[in-house]
């Protein structure tokens, strides 16, 4: 039986691209959503080569008014059998909260929180038409702890994690499974796009390429797991964070970033 389609946001690069390719290799059709057309077309071509030409692009800035509705309408008009929703698109703002423009913080919150909530709400009726359907939300280890210089980002990922947990409980018995993957550092050029080159040495030392993270995330999703932290070191770190006093964890994590803080910018994946 032919598998349905997977919608992947932020699919043009990094972890989103790797997840799209992983799902395509497993026979799922791909609807890749991103705002960069050239990279988007490349991902679609790569996915099509893996799944029998069942891949299409939808170019959109998801923070624009009506963008999520346009994606949902496209799926309905195309009569796609949607089986997987991957809420991957996101961005970060690095720097002291008061020194970054308010528009940056609000845009981050819209992309990291409002967009996945809106897409999920609009697409749940479509997902529930399938015998089995899946929602994969991309969180972060930053969601386990408050972190100075990344206050809005860590807060947004904390929301994603807790929203995912609650949504999973609400959807129990409906045939729709929810999984939240919380990776640590993923080597995708993210630090350069964020103006976080001061963190490059740590990212290279402790980070992981996106492909194994995508494989672990997709495996966890289809295994019915509620939550996964990919990588042995990151899993150990998350376990240790749960044992230590929260104030100590927050101070250690914040000090690492505060000591390396240069002028920063906003980036998206």
Question: What does it look like?
Answer:
- The chain is an alpha/beta fold and 269 residues long.
- It has one domain: 3-Layer(aba) Sandwich (Rossmann fold).
- Helix content is 50%, strand content 16%.
- It is built from ten helices and nine strands.
- α1 (14-25) runs parallel beside α2 (37-51).
- The two termini are 33 Å apart.
- The model has no long low-confidence stretch (mean pLDDT 90).
List keywords for this structure.
269 residues; alpha/beta; Rossmann fold; 7-stranded parallel β-sheet; two-stranded antiparallel sheet; 10 helices
Blueprint of the fold:
Layout: E1 5-9, H1 14-25, E2 29-34, H2 37-51, E3 55-59, H3 67-78, E4 82-87, E5 91-93, H4 102-127, E6 133-138, H5 151-170, E7 176-181, H6 190-193, H7 200-206, H8 210-222, E8 227-228, H9 232-243, H10 246-258, E9 266-268
Parallel strand pairs: 1-2, 1-4, 2-3, 4-6, 6-7, 7-8
Antiparallel strand pairs: 5-9
Helix pairs in contact: 1-2, 1-8, 3-4, 4-5
CATH superfamily: NAD(P)-binding Rossmann-like Domain
Most strands sheet? 7 strands, parallel
Which term fits the overall shape? globular
Count of the domains: 1
Strand content: 15-25%
Distance between the termini: 33 Å
- Mean pLDDT, to the nearest integer, reads 90
State the strand order across the main sheet.
Answer: 3-2-1-4-6-7-8
Q: Determine the fraction of residues in helical runs and give it as a percent range.
A: 40-55%
CATH topology: Rossmann fold
Reported CATH architecture: 3-Layer(aba) Sandwich
How many DSSP helices? 10
Total DSSP E strands: 9
Order of helices and strands: EHEHEHEEHEHEHHHEHHE
Unreliable residue runs = none
Find the structural class using helix and strand composition. Answer: alpha/beta
